[in-house]
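Hi R.,

Here's the chain you asked about this morning:
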Amino acid sequence: MRRLTRPLWACLALGVLCAAAPAPAGDFTPDELDDLVAPVALYPDDLLGQVLMAATYPLEIVQARRWSDDHPDLSGDALDDALRDEDWDASVEALCAFPDVLAQLDDDLGWAQDLGDAVLAQQDDVLDAVQRMRRRAADAGELGSDEHVLVDDADGELTVESDDDDVVYVPVYAPRAVYGAWRPRARYSATLYGEPGVRTTYAAVRGARTWARCDWRAGELAIDAGRYDAFARHTQRAGDRRRLDGVSGGRARWTHDPAHRGGVNYRDGATARRYGGTAGSARVDHDVARGRSITDGLASRGTSTARASTTSGRRTSTHGASSALSGSRDAHLDRSASDRGSRSRSTSSRGRGGRRR
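And the predicted structure, written out as tokens:
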């Protein structure tokens, strides 16, 4: 009996350790992915791609939002010049032209981190979820071509583009209101999904330089090399510009840059190994992003805290029932659901000639 004591104790100890260890993170389910993409699925493709890329850098989102709040009057070339002094990933810098989009990500940081983690581990599944949600919106009469956006339904893929080369029209909508009978199941804040019956409006953002692309057929995010180079020349110092590899046909496949992750845990071990990081279930919080103790918000030991922004103060978000976007839109851009439902859902009859120059 005594000879059994040590092995039995060892087995019991091993069992306790195994029970205490966190279970490996599984894939996000289709329902979970639908919840994640619902607040942004109706964005124009280029802005959507920009958001999905930036979500993989949650600490820099917090820093950029604080910086944006402290520079509310910057736009166009002045904004680009000011960004030269920052060292965030280009996808995060690009969102500084869309302060309300940036605020939406920052205000529900847990959602933003989950969205970014899904992009890193299940990029093709994320894009499939976007298509599912767009199809629901189209079937409900909430997504179609109009004077602001071109919606094309070709080869089973719904694409969305702003109907003006100089303006990005950002839809401001309540996910609960635009996807028919769909309702979120997620644990994220109620303001992220809004309430049924809220009107959809548009925020017109002029002069923004977008360069992200969604390659729907390949199921991956891509970069328009020419537009990216133009953006980088205006916003990044020559020595800081990221070189694009594998450019073909004017495009390059987007790859996550772990140097901008700031020590944030990756959700699963496979993703962590791919980028040389640490896996864990801890969530980012704003204290860590502001440079406080790493133990306040991240469970990964030995990682470095992100560079804290030296600015202070945060603009109060204008989250309402219709999500975080607000402010920079014109009154004449409001439209009702019935107006949208009467529009064509495809540009096949208009062709690209319908684009205003």
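DSSP finds 14 helices and seven strands in the chain.

Let me know if you need anything else.
M.
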